[in-house]
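WARN no homologs supplied; continuing
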Amino acid sequence: MSWLDSDDFPSGPGGISVDQYSPWVHPVTQTVYFWEPQKMSWVTLNSPGARIFSDTEDPAISNGITLQDGDLWWDSRHLELRVYHRPLPLTSDGYVAGRWVSSTNPEMSPEDPNRNMIIGTIMIDGPSAPYEVEEVTYTVTRPFGGAPESKIDYEWRSSPPEVVIRDDDGNDLTITPYIDTPHQSSTNIVFPQGSAIFDGNYQVSFNISCKITAKPEFEDEFVNTIGNSPSINVKPIPLTADPVQYIVATVGASGSIIHNNGSVNVIGTDTVTSTFLVPNFFISTTNSLLTDMKYSTKPKDESSQNDIVSTKVSDYGPISDGNNGTVQNKNGYLLQISTLNLASDVTLYIWDEANEALTGTLILQAS
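OK structure emitted
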């Protein structure tokens, strides 16, 4: 019998001689193999050798590569080695989808590709300083993939879920953020009037996040059944408030963002005493180049949403005019600094999203 007529891989016991690079067709799957003499093994014709990738996202997505069984991917975002596994179909007309398999996952079963499900990395987006009674949208995504939507549940949460305050008549009033669709990937939330709560110069914040879990009927298919998004630290902007102080931002001769006197004085071009600025103060602008500024407690490349203390607002007020005591509304940026430790100087890092060349700092001098 010729080795070409073998019902099993003809490289096994039996002493059958196979010529190098000879083709052989599996009688059941009709998959074409060839003999690789250096590896002393049969290799599928469409996967002559595994490749190694290093990237922060699936190389099939980032580079448009057609993956092959045995390819390796070092996920430099999560520091994890994955192997691409695509089992052979049981019949010649069958199809089996491939998937990345964690090299550290002991639960994986090649016979059941539905095992090895993961929630995946969760990212969240939404405003950190909405107005009271404004309906705003929060969304979670899984940009690097994960289990299909049909196998997971969403649960939006606020921490604290409610806050009890005293109204002007001395009665208890419960403030509860309204979550419109708590079990979808995107939801609208309304922070009711009164949710901008201050205790002296400290503002109470609401941490908004979303928990994603495996549906109960699919839990045995998951490596981890629960995933949590990061939280957005939300400090609502009050509809009515005492007049806030302001300073002016502009572009200096050197091309950097500097500051001038407003209702309070600026020391030099980058320092202001924080005594009269807490819990909130205002930045107005006099230069058309400044269109989308961010003030953060960390440099841009280290900053997350919760580090940014500024919110761009229109027709906001009342803004104090320190010269004659009048108030008015302005366009600009509201800075919420009630949670900063101002017992010592705090440096805020500034950049403009629309023009990366425009940067600067503002030092909040200790109270």
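The chain has a mean pLDDT of 85.
OK
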